[in-house]
Specification:
It is a single chain. This protein has 8 helices and 14 strands. The protein is about 30% helix and about 20% strand. Helix 1 crosses helix 2, helix 3 packs parallel to helix 4 and helix 5 packs across helix 7. The radius of gyration is 21 Å and the shape is globular.
């Protein structure tokens, strides 16, 4: 075991004892110095990618740090590879503690995310957390993450640091939403983030999840000959002709291969028709056996807990 991984294992063990054995005690919120647009500002990191501003012109503002993501720190909900949920919970806590102990430099233009939190770019913090494997790079759309973070993540993966120590899923499941959460009729999706370049995929669905349900991203066995055959057939499929117009042969095959493995349509296809394309492939190709006999396995997993049941005495049983 490398010295770095030995230190990680020791830290995991120590924090696990604190997280699961030691009773919670009241304590003053630890303050971290963050320079926001050049001004030193006290903040409180509630997890590794968000904080609350404690002073200065932004006092009271809740902030979300852009470009990367840390695992959920409200409880043991993530798992993949050989990781247990509790071990991954400790990784999330380590990200928080690492953020709290530094001095960081952030910039913002005042834009907010969908939850009303101010968005900031903190290159030094983001790069360090990603390089150490305490966080992963993340874009919220088809675009890759910033090159500095993609490079840092590839280094972390190559050295199996932090959250990559026990497996590297091609997509990380970062959020779950049950169908009843769709109150405006726009549909429900779970977010998947590529471990390669950090672009996001919306896993659209109509499923209702119960509290503490373990939801896993499905990974299917790929038959290269079947992928070639489906790619060739799609070129003569009148229904998809307008959807693949202008798509190169290489990109089309890559899309088919990714669909075969994950049952989603990648960014080679216009996002407005991806769901229709997916349903067409599921009904007219998968159900007809054109992808062969595909064995299914679990990729990244996450437990569903409504946000109202994540904290306090009434939190969900799987978080206790």
């Amino acid at each position: 075991m490398s010295n770095r991984n030995w230190k990680l294992a020791s830290a995991v063990a120590a924090i696990a004892v604190a997280a699961f054995v030691t009773p919670a005690v009241d304590a003053k919120e630890p303050q971290t110095k963050v320079y926001i647009n050049g001004k030193p500002t006290p903040v409180f990191f509630n997890d590794g990618d968000s904080f609350r501003v404690l002073g200065g012109s932004y006092q009271g503002t809740k902030a979300r740090l852009a470009g990367y993501n840390t695992l959920e720190s409200y409880g043991p909900v993530h798992s993949w590879g050989d990781w247990t949920e509790k071990e991954m919970y400790v990784i999330a806590k380590m990200a928080t503690y690492h953020a709290r102990k530094g001095v960081w430099h952030c910039e913002t233009d005042g834009d907010t995310d969908t939850y009303g939190r101010m968005l900031l770019w903190c290159e030094d913090l983001a790069t360090e957390l990603v390089r150490e494997g305490y966080a992963h790079a993340m874009s919220i759309n088809d675009d890759p993450a910033k090159p500095v973070l993609v490079e840092a993540q590839r280094e972390a993966i190559a050295n199996r640091r932090g959250l990559w120590a026990h497996g590297v899923p091609k997509f990380i499941l970062t959020s779950l939403h049950s169908a009843e959460e769709d109150v405006d009729g726009r549909g429900t999706y779970n977010r998947l983030v590529s471990s390669d370049d950090a672009h996001s995929v919306k896993w659209k669905h109509t499923n209702r999840y119960s509290e503490c349900d373990k939801i896993c991203h499905s990974v299917f066995e790929v038959d290269d000959a079947a992928v070639d055959a489906v790619t060739a057939e799609l070129k003569t499929d009148a229904k998809v002709a307008p959807w693949i117009a202008g798509v190169s042969d290489a990109d089309l095959r890559g899309m088919v291969e990714e669909f075969a493995e994950f049952h989603h349509i990648n960014r080679a296809i216009d996002k407005e028709v991806r769901e229709d394309f997916k349903q067409h492939l599921l009904v007219d190709y998968v159900q007809q056996g054109k992808f062969g006999e595909q064995r299914r396995s679990d990729g990244a997993c996450m437990r569903h807990v409504d946000f109202k049941r994540r904290f306090g005495e009434g939190r969900a049983s799987c978080l206790k």
